[in-house]
Amino acid sequence: MQYAFRRHLNTSPLTYLRTVRLDLARRQLLAAAAASTTITEVAARWGFTASHFAALYRRSYGHPPTLDLHTQP
């Protein structure tokens, strides 16, 4: 099954799941009010530790998660 998954999507199931969770976390950050949401809270909701989340986020999107959270009104 993993071989078929990798062949079809060109990635492992674990990497795919991590990417989906990271994308959902980013959507939450973009929609959140900075005054009532923390990076740690969002990271934990999607199963990441804050430091691991910040590193993955920066690698994936080219900037820290705080930039997306604090750009909201």
Automatic annotation (TrEMBL):
GO MF terms held by the record: DNA-binding transcription factor activity; sequence-specific DNA binding
The keyword Amino-acid biosynthesis is assigned to this record: no
SMART domains: HTH_ARAC
The entry's keywords: DNA-binding, Transcription, Transcription regulation
Record bears the keyword Transcription: yes
Pfam families to which the protein is assigned, alphabetical: HTH_18
Residues of the HTH araC/xylS-type domain: 1-71
Matching PANTHER family: REGULATORY PROTEIN PCHR (PTHR47893)
Name used for this protein in its record: HTH araC/xylS-type domain-containing protein
